[in-house]
Amino acid sequence: MAEFPFEISPMFEGExxxxxxxxxxxxxxxxxxxxxxxxxxxxxxxxxxxxIIGPDLKDMEEGKTYPWAMIFNIGGELVEPDLESxxxxxxxxxxxxxxxxxxLNQRYDVWMRVSxxxxxxxxxxxxxxxxxxxxxxxxxxxxxxxxxxxYTDKDEVEKQMETAKEIFKxxxxxxxxxxxxxxxxxxxxxxxxxxxxxxxxxxxPDRISLCGAINWFDGRAAAKVDPEGPQFEIAKGDLxxxxxxxxxxxxxxxxxxxxxxxxxxxxxxxxxSPHTSCGCFxxxxxxxxxxxxxxxxxxxxxxMAPNGIGFSTMAGQTGGGKQIVGFLGIGVNYFYSPKFxxxxxGWNRVVWLPSKLKEKxxxxxxxxxxxxxxxxxxxxxxESLKAFLQEKNHPVVATWAAAEEEEEEEEEEEExAVAAAPMMMPAAGFQMPAMPMMSGxxxxxxxxxxxxAKITIDRMIISEKKEKK
Length: 469
What we know:
alpha/beta
């Protein structure tokens, strides 16, 4: 192995570079971050070449955040465009093998940090680029030649970002006419288990990976060229519930990969045994009980959702490879799925989206709901959201009246039950103290109303209070 100014090992996966130990930040929530892999002819690639357009590491100011784009070109006899996404997703792995360099997310949401210790050992991104390419060619031998260009100039990063988003859009469109019921196998991915040990990422034709980088075709290509890699086949097994998207084979793999923590994953459910959320997800959904609706917020949105919480906070409590009822991480392309949270109302349950996200996924939103889903421009808190939904007659509003009627019926039943309940008889010789009469009513007595309550009493003692002498 070539000599590098930092150690390289899988043991560094999961290493976090905290703000106090950071030399520079690349991309992330405060800037632009991109990674893209493109297949190219062998003759067009200068093997192991690293090109840097914009300030290099030695030109950067400590503690600052810079725009960042990585464009890798790969070539080889077996390299084809279908493998671009597969190779791209391994960028996360191999960068995190490098000591003191942290990589999070994917595609156009890349967030990296270089530690002070690592920056002190190198003054350029060149050895870092060479190390990552060395890892790629070692782990994925079908890559025969590779080169990389790092962009840190803002204008250049923006230009690359615009081009890349069109490429991502074309990739995602491939699964449009393929559905879960059309295939015998799904695909699993364990790339995020270094950060989320119990995460079980299941990729089906109707559900893209949480990171948004791997669709069903990508999973198939990855499993074919790298059978021992992080993407693998999942025999979907018997269909247990078509609405929730529950399959016996998925449940089996969920139990195995989560070390028994979960025994069910329902691919298209928001509340009941939902898909686990790793932390690399592009969007997080959150239940708003006050309106019985679901809001969604993406990484690009820097404000607060109507529940008073921002993306980073919700992502923190949703991620980690858990099933958190009321929160769900997804890839953006899942919005386009005909099975999008169909077990819980689908689009009829969506009540809030950031305006930019709403604009981005405009084609996915049913025409009759487009003006009924609020954004931060329409509702900034629960009360304004409720007013907006009522004004627009959103489908969830119809559920409010039904819920109120149900509550009233339950309240009446509980009142009757309390009135009919037998009184506990006191022990012999004990005089029941007189209960005070309530003013304002002809019948007197005390009215107790228990709403949605469960009360268990093992023992109750009623005694007369004696005045102190």
